[in-house]
Structures are given as structure tokens and as C-alpha cells.
């Protein structure tokens, strides 16, 4: 046993140090490289991105010879909500969240044969409950937890579970504009006979049953939301991806029929592809589970184990008394980071009259035990200048990639800008925003 | 740095030893517990399973008091192809396949912004190519690799990519019976307007375009297959999940337009949910990538990293000269294990006239460099007894859960039986099979 352990330690350490080195090298490389982005859920934007990337490559020579700051050549991609801002927190936490998975572990399809959600890792479920209990943002009692390959898969699973199976026509799926840009395409890409995108909830006047998507705080604009239609036959799906203390005051524990959360916006681990749903009706949960069986035969067990570890550390870091004073608290550090970014952004915007930002009402956060500010993961920026019709194009001209208002069901004067990129890119963004206004 | 490493070593070792202990405890527990199974893609069977489980619980007292072997109370679940047989190989390989993932690694959505498949981990792609080059079972040159959350997701992605977007009716999807039992439900569960299950390829006589699924070796019966229809307008999808040396002779490198593989059947890591497609037409690949963007925004990076490590070790273990003599070769050991199981099964079946099994032709395996036997991952067992109409029910009466022929588009005289369960369950299965015939 001793010799086994010593071999293991050495090899393991070697692997680990390699991983550490590689990670650091990649980070340096990634920070330094030109961002020639590929897009998800933004096909329309893609061709623009590619043109932009090519254009940038063509102009590199002259820029280089003019001796300008390297940063000015970078295309900053704030189109996606890639939450790389959180990398530095997890680096500071060191090895606490490192997972070690031996080759023979978690090989079976089955995580828990006694759970209706047979592909749910018990440890992940446990950490989800612990986290909600700590933060107080959702009721977990009397709910079936359904794990998904990100909350996208759970959104589709919810549509499948809630749509009547033998209706004469597909059920209408609606959300108040501005709505999450992927809802229409995710709902309609398979031309399902079960459900169909029916647009803005505010102008929805069709009779009969419907599914309303309530995203709160809302993506893209960050406002707290409630159902807008409230008619007989309406079924609600609550997407609470951003209902965490760093983004919005936690006013009470959400207590809905079907609520979606995702690791990517909570902890920043987007590449892990793990989300979860809290589902009141066991029959609805059963159909969502069936959907995930049919589409991917369960959810990666490795990723659930990793997510469980990360949620565990996140909860541990924030559950000490006087957590706002704790130097390690994930939510404290993230809250202050977001506050700082929003302050800097508002300062940059307020330096001129070219742009505007939404105004939010502060509220009491039960978790932080203080009045806190909404400081969304996206900035919903409006071009106020009369001469600018298309804000996305304007910013693209300054090598800032954003997502234009049309994708969200409103006009092109608006753009959605990720607030979760790495420091370097966020600072460049501020600098360019300032330069546009001067 | 030294103190960091020493802390790391201790914590890391502690986690690792915990993981080892847990894994062993769970193994003992799992082997010993009553298998009250939950099913995927077998909803019909489930109610039966539940009844069976309840019935078993009711009979436990009398069985216990009669002093019979504990094994006889077990329900053996051979309904799914859960590849737990491979656990022992990976245990023997020790720490070689252990992955260590620090908390700040792979956080971004993006694996490789320069690849059209932006969520494909370069290391995973590299190991896929290496493995195919070694085994010689598929041409990778001139192919886009598309990674998926298991090959199920890639199957759906392929239907989406290949179906015409503006056709007046959905394209027909067919496969020759007996076909993989999940094809009909996976094709039809969303009532897509793009594609529609049209049943057995052998009786398909509709005019116009169609997609034919060619599974080779076939699930459930293990035979090598080619396209059955071969008409104008036909598009082929090759599911080669079982085209590996342990299951069938590798006669040549597959060179099709769109080929699917999955880690679960190649290495046994079903819980990792990773599959890959080799796609000739970049436009088709692009649409498959779009499908995966819309359904799950990419594929878990953690799982890809783990799969890459496992494929790497598998390739390394089998690439030494004289590989059939190597004590570590994955393919050698798995080939002999399957050969042994098939020999034992045939002996058990041949002891009576109650059951029969398919007869296969041997062939020359380019990889093993010898004549080898087909020895499929499933046994396609037929009840020859005139008094038995429903083979699945008969076996269920003996606490053996299998999947009946009707799920595969043929009659109930047939059942599909997993050959990939753990030794203990496989041996119990043989014992019960023998007892039915006496």
C-alpha cells in the first residue's frame, strides 16, 4: 500500500503540476491572443464576426507599424455571456475545488437507481439543496431536482414536459420582450408539433393554453420580472439563472412550479454544462427526465461531480458568520466585483450623452442582510444618439462585439453587453466606450 | 512552492483515498444490493420492472428463511447495455487514467475558437484520430470531428443536419429490423416537422428522399450491415458504436459520409456521455454543430478531457508490437473476455433446445492480424420453445430483465441481452439460463 501510494503521489503530482502549468500557459496565451470568435446562437452575427476578424487581420500590419498599444487591435467579444471573470476567484481558491476522478469511477449510465432522476448524482443534488438553503433564493422542499446538460437542455425538457401530447396544434411559447435571444430559435429549430414560439408576451392575444417564460432577473435587461399574461391555461417556466446575490437582491425564496438554474452563471463554470431544475409536479419531472433520456441518455457524471465540488466550496466559503467580511466568500467577492464594474461602466456612460443604461431600484438582500443594488450580468446599453440607428454595428466598428436589440425582440438602438469577461477585456471595453463619446 | 506542494499532496491524497474507498465501498454495495432498476428508453418495461421489484420484495422473507443463495434473489438487469464489465480493466490500469481538473480550468464555453466545432477539446480530437489510426476502423482524414453528449445527441444532430429545411413534409427515417429500439422514439418524440420515423427499411416503399440508419455491427443482433435500400435520394448515417476489435473483426477502415462512435461502447465509460461523429461534408458538420449549440450550448469540457485521457491510455496500451501478447492491451483483454463470455453463453444455450443464438461468420481482423469471431455486446436470444410466445416475460419470471423483440421491430420470441454487465451478474445469468432448460 505504501509503495502504491508513493507511486500514486508522484505520478499524480506530476499530472497535477502539468495541469497547473498548462492552465497558466493557456491563460497567458488566451489573454494575449487575438480573439477571433466563433459564435453560438448567433449565426447572424457570425458572418459579421468573420468579416470583422478578416478585416482586423488585414489591418494588423499598419496598426503594428504605427506603434499603437497592442490592446487596440483586439476584438473584444462581449456577445456571449462567457463568465470568465470568475476564473481569478477560483484560482485564488487553489486546490480546494480540484477534482480527481480515477479511470474506473462513474462508468455506469446510472447515478442513482433509486431516484426517478436516475442520472442525478446524489452529491450534486445534496450541494444544490445546501446552496439554496444558504442563499435563500429558492425553495427546494417538495421538489424533484432534475439535472441537465446546462439549463438549455432543461428549458427544452420543460417545453416537452408541459406541452400537451395530443393537442390539435402546438402550444404557444411566449416571453415578454426584450427576451433571451435564444428562446425563439431553441423553441422552433426542430419545427416541433408540440410547441411553437409565439413571440412577445405583451402582445400575445391568442386564446387557449400557452407557456410563458419568465426570466428574472431578465436577460438581457436585468429587471426583476413576473408573469405578464396571467390568463387561464397559462403555464409558467421560471428561468432564474441570474437570481444570485452578486447580480440582484435576494428578496425571497422563489417558490414556483418549475424553476431553472445553471452552474455557468452561478459559479462561472460554463464549460462544465450543468444546470438544474426544481420541479413541483412529479409527473412533469418524469417527462423532463424522459426528455433527457431520449436526447442524451442522462447527464455527464464527471461534470456533476465537478459541479458538486464547486458548489460545496462556494457554500462553505460564504456560510461563515459575518460573511460579507470574509475574505474568501464567493458571493461577497463577486458582489463587490460586479459593483465595481457597474460603477465604472456608469461613469464611462455618464461622461457623455451618447449611451444610456437602465436605472434599477435597490432592494433589501436577505442573503447579504443589507440593501443591495441590481448589477446584472449583462449591460443593456442604448445608443441615444439620433444619428445612430444600429448600436451593434457602431460598437463593432470599435471592435466591440455585442448582441443587437433585434435578437431580443426590440429595436437596434439597444445592445446587450456581457459584464462577465476577464478584467483585461472589460477595461478595454470601458476605454473604447469612453473614446466613442469624445 | 514547496509548502504549497506539500499541502496539495496531503489534501489531494486525502481526496484520492476517499474516492478510492468510496468507489470500493460502492462497488461492494452495488454488487450486493437488490437491483431495483430504473430504465431509460424502456418506459414500457418500467412498469413491469416496478411490479417485479415489489413482487421480489414481497417474496424476500420466504426466500431468506428457506436459506437459498443470496444471488437467487437478485434481479439481474440486462435490459440496458450498461458496460460495467470494463470497470475491472480500468481498475487494473490504476492511476494512469486518473484525471485531475483544477477549479479554474475549462470555465469558458469555448474549447477552440479556431475550430468550426468551437466546443471540441483539441486533445480529445487528437486522441480520437490516434485511436482510429491505430485500430484502422475509420478514415479520419478530410473529416470534421463533431463531439456530442453521447452518440444519441449526434444521432439527433445528424437528423437535423440532413433533413431539408423547407420540405413540404418531414423526411422519412428508416432502419432495417431488428433496429436499435430507441430510433423510433428518438426520431418522433418532439413530433418534428423535419423528420419522421418510417419504420423497417426492408418494407420501405415511399418515393422521395429518406435517411437510412445503418448500425454495424447491428444493435440488437450483432450482424455486419450495409445499406438495405440504396435508392436515389437516400442519405446514410452509419452508427458504428460497436465497430471495435473486441466485438467484431475490423475488416477495413469505414469511409462513409457520416459516422457515429461513442465512448461508452468503446471504453465502457457510459457515465461520461461523450460520442463523436466523423463528417465528410463541412456544411453538414456545421448544421450538426448548430444543433448542439441550440440543444446544450456545446459539450462538457471536463468529460472531453477525461475521455481524451482514457482514449490515450487505451491507444498506448494496444500499440506495442505484438500487442496480442501484451498484458495490458485493452483490446486484447476485452477481446478475450468477450470470447470467453460468448463461449460460456453458447455452452449454456446448447445444453438444451429451449433457446437459440445467431450464428456468425468469422473474419480476418486487420487490427488483431488474425481471424476473429464476432462476439457482440448484446446476445440476440430466441425462445425456440413452442409454448413460449413472449421470451421477455419468461426471463423476467426468472429475474432476468431483457428487452423484447417488439421494441426492435420484430416478434416477442426474441430478446436482447446485455453481454457487458459485471462478472457476478453475467454468471448468475448463465446459471439461471441453464436452470430454465433443465
TrEMBL record, chains A, B:
SUPFAM superfamilies xref list: PLP-dependent transferases
Entry GO MF terms: carbon-sulfur lyase activity; transaminase activity
Transmembrane segments: 12-30
Alphabetically ordered keywords of this record: Aminotransferase, Membrane, Pyridoxal phosphate, Signal, Transferase, Transmembrane, Transmembrane helix
Residues annotated as signal peptide: 1-19
Pfam family, one: Alliinase_C
The family this protein is said to belong to: Belongs to the alliinase family.
Self-association state and partner proteins as the record states: Homodimer.
Name of the protein this chain belongs to: Tryptophan aminotransferase-related protein 2
Organism from which the protein derives: Prunus yedoensis var. nudiflora
